[in-house]
Amino acid sequence: MRLSRYFLPLLKETPASAEIASHRFMLRAGMVKQHSAGIYSWLPLGYKVMRKIEQIVREEQNRAGAVEMLMPTIQPAELWRESDRYDDYGKEMLRITDRSGRELLYGPTNEEMLTDVFRTFVRSYKELPQLLYHIQWKFRDEVRPRFGVMRGREFLMKDAYSFDIDMDAAVVSYNKMFIAYLNTFARMGLKAVPMRADTGPIGGDLSHEFLILADTGESEVFCHADLVDMPAPGLDVDFETDLQSLVDERTSLYARTDEMHDKAAFEAEVPEDKRLTARGIEVGHIFCFGDKYSKSMGAKVMGPDGREHFAQMGSYGVGVSRLVGGIIEASHDEAGIIWPKSVAPFGAGILNLRVGDEACDKVCEDIYSKLGTAGIDPLYDDKPDRGGVKFSRMDLIGLPYQIIVGPRGLKDGIVEVKDRKTGERQNLSPDAAVKFITAQFADMSI
Ligand code: ATP
Ligand code: MG
């Protein structure tokens, strides 16, 4: 992409309303535009990052054996009356009436709707387990939308739902999502810690929240420090094998948010030098709630014993749009965002310090075309601005690598390559620069 043709409306001033780094940088870097509290347009740069995050979530859901589908954003109120949640959900639910007086709502989650799909089509235990997901917009009329996309009213969520014949099988599905989540967040360069969670209005007993540690997080967390450094299970996990020991390894150490915190247990279970108290951002939440919805909505299947059983269910959410902000909270400096390679909107920026100079233009075009061919998706700053403007703009939008091309270097046949994260700079020939950057993207393992 050539910057001269891109839509990147950067802000010079930091809007006063933005309280945290991610919100400030997302506005300044032209990633989103707010229209109403908690309702945003995703501008090209922000949208590109969100799509990358979404794709990682999708790949890890698929790897775990979940199957993608799509449910609507608008749901009929009757479904929620069946589960008894229509009134319980309260003011967070945006209720809508259509022209013929039918009550509808903008879905805040989809347990009822997928239970309805399931009960329509699935009759026998032989068709189980089922693990289905979609990535769809949700609306929750939050009391306090804030921190930009972190707590929006309209937001993008991946939500998966599992259906099993009994509780043992339901735990197998739960474990698949638990492991898939750790890999998902690790691929985005995040250290997400699973914490024992309250099951809240969704109900049930087995539940974990996944939190990334950040000073600006809304939850207070208490955990064993070793959990933070525990490596992700890895992309080679076989989801058809028993995952219980992998899950146990990560749930046996104390980790809870303020809602579930028990000071006495924390002090008894965790040695003093390992007690970590911090703040965290919830990026995922998984629940196993058994027959809460299948019972109220009559989702039954025939079991091997010839009798009908209510499906045992779980649901599993990832905050896709929240992650855009969450990743920035975890990875930035004073100058701007530092995107992990896996979610960066462009792989590298090419800075032409003298647009119009024959040698500079030629080398930049050549690098641009070669990086494009190598699949790096470069952003070429071909605008006629001063060097200083280009440097701070590129630092702000946070692409992992910058190739700086100026007439002085080119006299000696070199360009400068800057690593946005470490700040390291090296002088290389244009071809070596292309090779170096391409090599950095070759290994994306976690
Ligand atoms: P929270 O405790 O932050 O309000 P929740 O428990 O209501 O979240 P879930 O119903 O578990 O959220 O939703 C699954 C995921 O969706 C959450 O882990 C979070 O990442 C994301 N999410 C929830 N509410 C919002 C919101 N208002 N804006 C952006 N993302 C959200
Ligand atoms: Mg939650």
SSE order and pairing:
Elements: H1 21-28, E1 32-36, E2 39-42, H2 44-63, E3 67-68, E4 74-76, H3 77-82, H4 85-88, E5 94-97, E6 103-106, H5 111-121, E7 130-139, E8 154-164, H6 167-187, E9 192-196, E10 206-213, E11 219-224, H7 225-229, H8 244-251, E12 255-257, H9 263-269, E13 275-290, H10 292-297, E14 300-302, E15 308-310, E16 312-319, H11 320-330, E17 332-333, E18 336-337, E19 348-352, H12 358-373, E20 379-381, H13 387-397, E21 401-405, H14 407-411, E22 415-419, E23 425-428, H15 430-440
Parallel strand pairs: 3-7, 19-20, 19-21
Antiparallel strand pairs: 1-2, 4-6, 5-6, 7-8, 8-16, 9-10, 10-13, 11-12, 11-13, 13-16, 14-15, 17-18, 21-22, 22-23
The structure holds adenosine-5'-triphosphate and magnesium ion.
Adenosine-5'-triphosphate (ATP) binds next to strand 8, strand 13, strand 16 and helix 11.
